């Protein structure tokens, strides 16, 4: 037994992994097969946006190789249950057999929880800064009816031209109503977005509790919280028929504003 492996705890249940270490597929195998992209080669790149678009790291592997280390129990039971609860919802939305606005409260939460889980594992297993608090992993494991405070999940559907894409970072448009300084704490926030055929999903966490999320009318449909301290602004010139532009617009369009 590897001594390091025996003492490292699982990020979700916080129990030492020991000999039960497995690898969770960040994009579930059923979804990769459904989209026909399991063997597709990708080159995820971490860019330094403070220095133009200079690449910090780049990996080259298949989507099937995109995995995150977790314990066998979490992989086979806890995470599997989240997958089962959201699978048909995802398929129906990807194929436009259902619409976001027609989802009931339970369906919205199951989809939001799945998106949150996928965002956590993506950040854990990818070549990007690990800016998600470990408490968020523990919270997902311990709570089956809510997500952490200051987390927001939104969705939309568009006319896709590629099967899959993702983006993660901590880039925000901030409305300083009072003219105050945002401060460095903003970099402890995160936004992680996904595109699966017609479906767009975005998971966001604001590390400044006094600010509120601002969503664009007609663009961001709240999954979680369905109601709450969320402001609205007019939408920008959103691109509906280009998947990469749509996801990037969806990502940047979710903003923050000082609470008045």
Give a quick rundown of the structure.
By secondary structure, the chain is α+β, with helices and mostly antiparallel strands. The chain has one domain (about 5-260).
Describe this protein's structure:
The chain is α+β, with helices and mostly antiparallel strands and 260 residues long. The protein has one domain. The strands form five sheets. It has a five-stranded antiparallel sheet with strand order 8-10-11-7-13, with helices on both faces. Helix 3 crosses helix 4. The longest helix has 23 residues. The radius of gyration is 18 Å and the shape is globular.
What order do the SSEs take from the amino end to the carboxyl end, as H and E? HEHEEEEEHHHEEEEEEEEHE
Helix/strand-derived category reads alpha+beta
Residue share in β-strands? 25-35%
Number of helices: 6
Biggest sheet record = 5 strands, antiparallel
Strand line-up across the major sheet: 8-10-11-7-13
The total tally of domains equals: 1
Supply the key terms.
alpha+beta; four-stranded mixed beta sheet; 260 residues; five-stranded antiparallel beta sheet; 29% helix; disordered N terminus; 27% strand
């Amino acid at each position: 037994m590897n001594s390091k492996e025996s003492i490292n705890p699982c990020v979700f249940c916080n129990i030492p992994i020991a000999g039960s270490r497995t690898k969770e597929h960040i994009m579930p195998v059923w979804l990769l097969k459904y989209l026909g992209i399991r063997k597709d080669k990708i080159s995820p790149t971490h860019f330094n946006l403070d220095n133009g678009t200079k690449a910090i790291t780049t990996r080259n592997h298949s989507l099937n190789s995109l995995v995150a280390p977790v314990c066998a129990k979490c992989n086979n039971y806890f995470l599997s249950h989240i997958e089962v609860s959201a699978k048909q919802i995802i398929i129906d939305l990807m194929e436009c057999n259902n619409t976001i606005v027609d989802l009931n409260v339970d369906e919205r939460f199951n989809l939001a929880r799945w998106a949150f889980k996928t965002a956590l594992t993506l950040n854990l297993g990818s070549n990007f800064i690990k800016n998600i608090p470990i408490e968020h992993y523990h919270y997902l494991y311990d709570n089956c009816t809510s997500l952490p405070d200051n987390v927001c999940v939104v969705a939309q559907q568009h006319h896709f031209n590629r099967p899959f894409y993702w983006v993660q970072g901590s880039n925000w448009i901030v409305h300083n109503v009072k003219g105050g300084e945002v401060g460095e704490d903003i970099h402890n926030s995160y936004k992680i977005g996904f595109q699966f055929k017609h479906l767009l999903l975005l998971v966001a966490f604001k590390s400044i509790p006094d600010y509120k999320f601002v969503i664009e009318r007609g663009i961001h449909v709240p999954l979680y919280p369905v109601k709450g301290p969320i402001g609205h602004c007019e939408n920008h010139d959103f691109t509906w028929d280009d998947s990469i532009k749509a996801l990037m617009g969806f990502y940047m369009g979710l903003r923050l504003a000082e609470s008045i």
